[in-house]
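Justification of computing resources. Each target in the renewal requires a structure prediction run like the one illustrated here; the chain below, 270 residues long, is used simply to show the kind of job we budget for.
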Amino acid sequence: MYIFLLIIVFVLGAVVGSFLNVCIYRLPREESLVLPRSHCPSCNKTISWYDNIPFVSYLFLWGKCRYCKQKISFRYFIVEFINAFLYVVIFHYFFSYNLCFLLSYFTFASMLIVVTFIDFEYFIIPDEISIGGSIYGLILSFIFPQLMNTHSLWIGLYRSFFGGLVCGGALLLVALLASYILKKEAMGMGDVKLLTMIGIFLGWKLGLFTIFVASLLGSFVGVMLILFKGLKWQSKIPFGPYLSVGALITLLFGEKMITFYFSVLLNISQ
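Resulting structure tokens:
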């Protein structure tokens, strides 16, 4: 039965992933997510439902448009797979929790995937995701206060709001300080709004730990790019993807990582 549920969750994640590709393509272009229907970006032919089946259609068509034979970005396949995979991982990790945890974190993960791919390509984080996601997170924390480890509606809302305020405020302070020292903009406000959303979903403690994880990831990848790809130190690197990956890692393993981190510090101090 459990395996059957995993298969259903994987398929659900793939279907949602197909919609995420629409978001990734259209949000930066400020296009409607509803109309027109999915179409080939090269020839503008409307894509039939049988050519829009996650994984299957891409493989069957060899990654090309049925009509103009132009190559379709492999990103479409990757986004569907990543979203499906994350849904399975979240389902497995929060299987013993109630349904509100699963649905909330499914949506959270999907929003972070959209942010990652858009920020990598366009160096922007759409307000539709960060601000819209923040409002959505606050509503969820009020309707399902268990997300904030309480049964009180108002305490759940307060903890969620406080998490966003602390995390967004902390990153804003870092951004302003870095900009003052470097005499130029060091971090976009999109990152601040994104971390605010993350804090609203995860709470202040895990939200702040997300900054730590994201900084480690960003530093490692940045150094690798400098050493092996010839990237310059002053090159602009999007921070949103690392915040997103850091948030997902923190969502799944944050509590254990924090406990381990402080146990190591305690042993060193002794």
